[in-house]
Predict the structure.
Amino acid sequence: MSFFIIRGGFFGFEYTYKVFWILVALAACIYDWRKNKRRDYFWIFLIGSFLYIGAEVGMFFSGARTFTDRFIFGIDISNLHWFTIPVAAIADVPVIAVFCLFIGDRLMNKETRKAGWIFFSLYMIGKNVIQYAVLAILGYKFTSIDVGNPDIFARRDMLDLATVFSIAGMVVLTIVWLFFASKDARKRVLFMFLMTVAFMSTWSLGEWLTGQRWIETGADPTWTLAIPAYQFVFFAYDIVVEMGLFTLSFLAILYIFRSIRGRLRKDISESKTVEVTNETG
């Protein structure tokens, strides 16, 4: 039995929205680089993009993920795979990893917790509340979903073996690394994970309620809506494993190769020292 996660609406076809959030994520990277004199979020963005673009290319050629109509600024880009695959890959995973690490880093320290809650609120409102309020007002709802439509905007096989084993490998790598990681690194990982699960849970609920995302079972061309228990299990798998744990591997890889600093508190104090020095100089 196969299970498929569906992008049945706005999230599936609108690439203007994806490009916008990629630019916002890059702005967050630049903001932290300028303020704290580090490139942690750039590294997360880059390694996440490298890994997940590779995954999306693999799923595209294997047929594990299928796409139909895609648009940007009202222009049909459905056949521009060289553009749509990287954009979808970056917007769907690395961008979220950047935001969740960015917010988690600020919530984990008392000195920056207030700013963390402000960024968290802005992100949740901008990414969830406004979008789904508009969709609900326009009449989108779960009861109107187009189950089994072969021309749905995007359909991904959640039990594709290559994908499952790839994710499992990255998760195992992260778990092994955690045994040797410093206390500060583990704390950073924990907050990133909590932010990812919180965001993805809220986002997935909004997607489901407005009929943008659901789980199907079966095979081409006889897909049917999965029963509620399977819906819950596979949404939970998507949230906790495919996003929550998988994105932690980006951070683990960067720590393993010493591409980012290990102590956030030290970074903040260093940043303050630099600012004071600049002011007195």
Remarks:
- The first helix runs from residue 10 to 13.
- The chain has eleven helices and seven strands.
- The chain has one domain: 3-270.
- Residues 262-281 have pLDDT under 50 and may be disordered.
